[in-house]
Amino acid sequence: MKMKKVLSLLAAGAFAVFAMAGCGSDNGAAPAGDKQAKVLKVGSSIDFPPFEFQDEGQKEYQGFDMDLIRAIGKEMGREVEIQNLGFDGLIPALQGKSVDVVISGMTINDDRKQNVLFSEPYYQSGLTMVVREDEQAIKTFADLKGKKVAVQIGTTSAAEVKKLDGVEVKELNTPADCFMELKAKGVDAVVNDRPVNDYFITKNAAQGVKTLEEKLTAEDYGIAINKDNAELQKEVNAALKKLKENGEYDKIFAKWFGEKK
């Protein structure tokens, strides 16, 4: 899941920022002259840098997903309001119609498709592993047998690691909690989407840990939509297609991950 920018989220004292769950909403401006633009209510779990997070001292939510959904809203002519919710509460909020769409590094899979519609994929990720720098016994996912692994609760990481033979899974609330548990030697490894792991290591000068290159899965992220709203799904897909055609998507991607290779 996924490097976008020089931010110091996990530098000294920044774990608190990662774990911070602001309860308000974050408004995106409606297009100029469209004062009556219909609001697009967006749900997201703002604890997943560099896709969605809230930097210290900043009111607006930041990240790749945040920039993308604001651009999609602008293309649709709608004002964007973002609500910060727990990841495991996102689909229930969508089903209860308290939000219109969800964008939160959410993997498209068959289980979720039973409950929601998805946009066309907007990003491909995969699960990778972080271990302590002095770890020699763990080089691949097969080496996790008999080990303790931290994952974020309610995520694909949690579901996939539970499938591994002989692995003790420890589910925690945020990626920051997982990394803290690894450094405290409460677990032997952390499994997360690759962008989260890479961001932690490269953008925050993390010491004492290393990321392993093997991917456990390859997965597509999509924007989730209420299953009864196929029309909104079409609108979101049309806006996303337009952003890819006019180069705006590539600009947002480059801002957070660098130029596409």
From TrEMBL:
Gene3D superfamilies assigned to the protein according to its UniProt record, in alphabetical order:
Periplasmic binding protein-like II (3.40.190.10)
The record's Gene Ontology cellular component field reads:
cell envelope; membrane
One GO molecular-function entry = ligand-gated monoatomic ion channel activity
Question: Subcellular location, in the record's words?
Answer: Cell envelope
A matching Pfam family: SBP_bac_3
Q: Which residues form the Solute-binding protein family 3/N-terminal domain?
A: 39-260
First and last residue of the signal peptide: 1-21
Q: Which UniProt keywords apply?
A: Signal
Ionotropic glutamate receptor C-terminal domain sequence ranges: 39-259
Major place of localization? other
Instruction: State the family it belongs to.
Output: Belongs to the bacterial solute-binding protein 3 family.
PANTHER family per the record? Answer: ARGININE-BINDING EXTRACELLULAR PROTEIN ARTP (PTHR35936:SF17), MEMBRANE-BOUND LYTIC MUREIN TRANSGLYCOSYLASE F (PTHR35936)
UniProt name for this protein:
Polar amino acid transport system substrate-binding protein
